[in-house]
Write a structure and sequence with these properties.
Strand order of the largest sheet: 1-2-7-6-5-3-4
Largest sheet: 7 strands, mixed, barrel
Distance between the termini: 20 Å
Number of domains: 3
Helix content: 25-40%
Order of helices and strands: HHHHEEHEEEEEHEHEHHEEEEH
Number of helices: 10
Low-confidence stretches: 1-38, 44-82
Oligomer: single chain
Number of strands: 13
Strand content: 25-35%
Mean pLDDT: 80
Length: 312
Amino acid sequence: MTSLEMLDAIGYIDPLFISQAEALPIRRCHSYTRWIAAFAACLIITVSAIPLWLLFRPKGASSPGGSSHNNSGYDNSGESVLEIASLEFNGCYYEATDIPEALSRYGLPETLTSDLIGEHVSYLVPNGSGGYQESAIPSDIEMFTFAPDPGRAVYIIQEKNALLAALFCNYSLSESGSCVDLVELYRAYNIGSSDDIASITETDWNRTKVIGKIVTDPDSIAFFYNETTTSMPSFSNDAFQKMTFEGLEEEEQINKHIDFANDLHVIRIETKSGLRFYIDYHPSFGWIYGNGTLSYYRTDTSFKDWFDSFIG
């Protein structure tokens, strides 16, 4: 795995930041190489669902015209800046952004327009740490439903002249040992049956390029939906780690973490309304990771056969 792929897999970091990191000089330290690789592989396994753009965003930047940005990182002229603001709402975590690449990954238009604004949901205020929080009183930051497909997956935030999309990241789990059924991820995107899915395919790790066959056949989609919602038991991260890595010698555990990371296949699911979300599939290990549920799901040979036949 190249350093570019490793950075990419850890959090689907924006290509701009990946290329900048790749250009940095490398200091060779052979005795620690394996430990760094193992640590990175562990990060992929435990936090791959959480985009890490937040860790790389520029702070305190000014717009080309010299105007300063507000607390959430967006200028008042509506110009796009490389910034993402966090939001916790209704038991879920969101990232609010107008970055075209991020919007495109979710199936949204790269430029947000007023026709996407639906019904009023809540008023927001800056939370003091680069994000938003709900406000009990009216403010100049307002959150609306996403008009083309109202639900939990996407909200539209209007802050003065700027529009942002609040994109669903994951459910908030109350306990570290808890897990969420994969059907709840579908519900976040208003999927109640296989009829609500337009297509399924595989993408590269950065979720920008389709690399597998695109499945649109209703019967094939129905099999996928039924398998992922009724035939796969769910496990917490703690349970997954214990089942997969516990009891191995140190060297074996390092190698298995790396093998697991290299076994990643990203499956993209697109709804009939055009929204997209992703799950991570590790066929050699028989696991699916739900990026929006922070939970793992055990697959069987029938699912692997389906993947190999229709996508792989």
